[in-house]
UniProtKB/TrEMBL annotation:
PANTHER family in alphabetical order: PHAGE INTEGRASE-RELATED, PROPHAGE INTEGRASE INTD-RELATED
CDD domains associated with the record: INT_ICEBs1_C_like (cd01189)
Pfam families to which the protein is assigned, alphabetical: Arm-DNA-bind_4, Phage_integrase
Keyword vocabulary terms for this entry: DNA recombination, DNA-binding
GO molecular function: DNA binding
Upper taxonomic lineage: Bacteria, Bacillati, Bacillota, Bacilli, Lactobacillales
One BP term from GO: DNA integration
Residue ranges occupied by any Tyr recombinase domain in the UniProt entry: 170-379
Domain of life: Bacteria
Descriptive protein name: Recombinase XerC
Family annotation (InterPro entries): AP2-like_int_N (IPR028259), DNA_brk_join_enz (IPR011010), Integrase-like_cat_sf (IPR013762), Integrase_catalytic (IPR002104), Integrase_recombinase_N (IPR010998), Tyrosine_recombinase_XerCD (IPR050090)
Family: Belongs to the 'phage' integrase family.
């Protein structure tokens, strides 16, 4: 009997978890202190479902259970903390609310359509309704939930098969070298050096913000002139975690130009003298540190909003952090075109330098930066 009474009005559970592979002894999950039989039985059911994964034929499958399977799969695959946190946000704010009482085993395409229609009426934290882009991302997450259900033989089909909603085209924003020089001049090179260096890293390497904030001197080789991107910093619930990069292809080596190497070398010497009494190994310092505390995403955001935004001239827009990555790519493309390099070579070089998972991502993101290509196509008809 897995649920039994003991003492004065207390209940306990004793659930079998199979046999130990080495000793052959039976493994058990035990817990005591329940004040009622119902409470003990509910906990027993939870253990059997969420830990032992015991399912009865035609048993109702909750959205909570499906999501637990997704989280387990994410751990097995080593998905990034950023990906897991984004999914968690989708689940908490939208998916878990709509499907709170649903049987995920029996939902149909019509039910999924109702969910998407419900999303279209939900408010956005930025004001107005959710954008089609945001809704499409939530539908991708829901599709993943049902894929997991197929993997675990809970379902034989995936009802989340709706065609994606049309997304509004947003023109890519980026700085030219001249604009970047004007931008960086707005940052005090002494009192605000850590922010200056952060934006220089974004512009000169094309690194993602999380990758940039994870940089320590351990991955910076000034003698050879390169930076190894091996990890990414993520900030959530007032805590910084250093985890894996976005994809395995994001692990890469980025070479930097000599004048930037010289700047980093001079700063490294100065930083070590400034902070040596706070650390045992100076090489472990985050490269932006001017105090014992590391620079975090909220600090960058605060600096942008509270200071930079007020300094920007009317003819110079304040672009997003990620747009410095686009600025890096745009500059390399323009330089490559001037040097007569082929389009295919440029795309391949960009893919490697930016750490894209496939050449398709690079082409889809930056093909519009080749305006002459369209002119060449039109000119071809002169020989028609």
């Amino acid at each position: 009997m897995t649920v039994s009474k003991y003492g004065k009005g207390l209940w306990k559970i004793d659930v079998s978890d199979g046999y130990d592979e080495l000793t052959g002894e039976r493994k058990r999950i035990r817990k005591t202190g329940f004040t009622s039989k119902k409470q003990a039985e509910e906990y027993e059911a939870h253990i059997k479902l969420f830990e032992l994964r015991e399912l009865k034929p035609k048993q109702k499958i909750s959205i909570e259970y499906l999501y637990s399977l997704v989280k387990t799969e994410d751990e097995i695959r080593g998905n990034s903390q950023s990906t897991k946190d984004t999914q968690d946000s989708y689940y908490r704010v939208y998916v878990s609310k709509f499907f709170a009482k649903a049987n995920m085993r029996t939902l149909t395409v019509l039910d999924i359509k109702k969910f998407r229609e419900w999303l279209q009426e939900q408010p956005s934290v930025k004001g107005g309704k959710l954008t089609n882009k945001n809704i499409n991302r939530q539908m991708i997450f829901l599709h993943k939930l049902f894929d997991i259900s197929i993997l675990h033989q809970i379902r034989s089909d995936n009802p989340c098969q709706l065609k994606a909603l049309p997304e509004k085209y947003v023109e890519m924003k980026y700085y030219t070298p001249e604009q970047f020089k004007r931008f960086i001049a707005l940052i005090d090179p002494i009192d605000e050096f850590r922010y200056k260096l952060f934006f220089e890293i974004l512009m000169f390497t094309g690194a993602r913000s999380g990758e940039a904030l994870a940089l320590t001197w351990e991955v910076v080789n000034l003698d050879e002139g390169y930076i190894n991107i091996k990890s990414s910093a993520h900030y959530r619930k007032k805590k910084v975690t250093i985890g894996a990069t976005k994809t395995t292809q994001s692990v890469r080596r980025i070479y930097i130009h000599k004048s930037f190497v010289d700047e980093l070398r001079a700063w490294k010497t100065k930083q070590f003298k400034l902070l040596e009494k706070y650390v045992d190994k100076p090489e472990t310092l985050q490269i932006y540190q001017t105090t014992p505390e590391i620079v975090t995403h909220p600090q960058i955001t605060g600096f942008r909003h509270d200071k930079l935004k007020k300094r920007m001239p009317d003819d110079l827009p304040l672009i997003r952090n990620h747009d410095f990555r686009h600025s890096h790519a745009a500059f390399l493309i323009s330089q490559g075109l001037r040097n007569g390099e082929g389009k295919d070579y440029l795309f391949f070089t960009l893919m490697k330098r930016l750490g894209h998972s496939s050449i398709t991502t690079t082409v889809n993101t930056y093909s519009h930066l080749f305006p002459s290509q369209q002119k060449e196509i039109a000119s071809a008809f002169d020989d028609f």
